[in-house]
Amino acid sequence: MTSTPLHRQRGTKIVATLGPATSSHEMIKSLACAGADVFRLNFSHGTAADHQARMEIIRGVEKELQHPLCVLGDLQGPKIRLGTFDGGHVMLEQGQSFRLDMDTTPGNATRAPLPHPEIFQAAQLGTLLLCDDGKIALQVVGQSPDHLDVVVKVGGKISDRKGVNIPDVLLPISALTDKDKRDLDVAMQLGVDWLALSFVQRPDDVQEAKRLVAGRAAVMAKIEKPLAVQSLQRILDVADGVMVARGDLGVEMPLEEVPSIQKHILRKARALGKPVIVATQMLESMISAPTPTRAEASDVANAIYDGADAIMLSAETASGKYPLEAVATMDKIARHIHVDPEYRRMLAAAHPDLQSTAADAITAAARMVVETIDAAAIVTYTTSGSTTLRAARERPPVPIMCLTSKRETARRLALSFGVHPVHTDDVHDFAEMVDKAMVLAHQHGLASIGDRLVVTAGVPFGTPGNTNILRIVWVEQRLL
Questions:
Q1: pLDDT (tens digit, 9 = 90+) per residue, 325-351?
Q2: Among 128, 146, 165, which residue terminates a domain?
Q3: 114 and 197 in one domain?
């Protein structure tokens, strides 16, 4: 059998957001063949019927390609917005006084409606409010239960329903709005593999989502607020993965801090074996141009050098003119970096400390054995995914072929670094697993006759996290 077109020559995965430009069977299949490993359904846009239609196409493409495809459902989260203005907009001058209040009457040059009572509860003297992605900055100089008096620190044109960000203030708002809860139910009915949670401020937000998800999907916390950065370790302890959502993060924090925060999040998450997506404006110019800027190519490359599990395209594939070219560009950059010796040195230098467990010892040994004997792949057998996630944390230079009898595990692991998931029938003993590993590695183009594989598993099978066997095997002609 020839190798599948989804045998990636890279460790970093690519997330493609679906939208009006990418909703047909032909386009979704082309995106998968071009390099998309994960498809994002953005619940900020579209109807339940739209998402259902796209999900049905993804699962049809998955069946055609005979390769697990991961689906990420992304919840909108609370949106704090101004009301409307007479004439649609006003100009604010630096230093002028202004008022935000609960009156829904259209605003003017002296006041504007802000129909969010929780803001008036949480704001204090000196609190900064950022409007329209940070273009307008207002500082609180007076407050009451139904209005805030502010002074304009950064002025400009402000128009209807622009968003408002409040950095460094814990807002008494759940990360799950009523709309999010309805969308969560839809996402679970559709069978998404990951659910991304917006507006995370604290671990409790993630716990609430996990309670509602009830194990039907993995939960990803979007790190987009300063309070989430401050609580990162505790959020990582409860989340299954995280997304570096640089859009709002870049509004609510100084821009110069975002690159170091990205590196910090990636390092902390890798230490725990939690997958990380780096997102927002990665190839923004490719919404309307067939090639990226050099700065964008460097941004994508830096996220890969930092060790990201996945990099994400948003409007580039959802509504852009060149969705296939955007995916292909990311794929080319990632494949080039994957064989760069400097990349391997950087990953090794950032290697997390091992826990004092047999599972960690064996998984670390698997990577070292691969590098020593030039093996073609690591093969893991897993039910829950923990064995494979531990292998991915090691960032080996070869593919990690994950054998699992659970289709949902195979799909979730398609997001993780270097994992080539294979859904296969269950095995009864280690000898059967080894034979199956050789056959499937050859069928999937990961190894040739005579190549060596490093096989890890936990015996007895079905015990999560119980990695306790490592074996080196040769791919034998007799089995093929």
A1: 999 999 999 999 999 999 999 999 888
A2: 165
A3: no
222 is catalytic: yes
79, 81, 202, 267: which is the annotated catalytic residue? 81
Same-domain status, 316 and 264: yes
| Residue 150 belongs to some domain of the structure | yes
pLDDT of residue 480: 66
What does the angle CA 409 – CA 413 – CA 418 come to, to the nearest 5 degrees? 150
Domain match, 194 and 285 both: yes
pLDDT tens digits for range 4-41: 457 889 999 999 999 999 999 999 999 999 999 999 99
Element (H, E) at 258: helix 258-271
How many domains does the chain contain in total?
3
Looking at 280, 388, 456, 467, which residue is catalytic?
A: 280
Catalytic residue, candidates 8, 40, 225, 411: 40
Find the catalytic residue in 10, 54, 222, 270: 222
Q: Verify that 92 and 36 share a domain, yes or no.
A: no
**How confident is the model over 53-65, as a mean pLDDT?**
97
User: C-alpha distances in angstroms, 81 versus 94, 105, 116, 446?
Assistant: 21, 15, 8, 51
Where does 309-430 show beta strands of DSSP type E? 310-313, 377-381, 400-404, 419-423
**pLDDT higher than threshold 50 for residue 1:** no
Assess whether 81 carries a catalytic annotation: yes
Residue 452 belongs to what domain range? 358-479
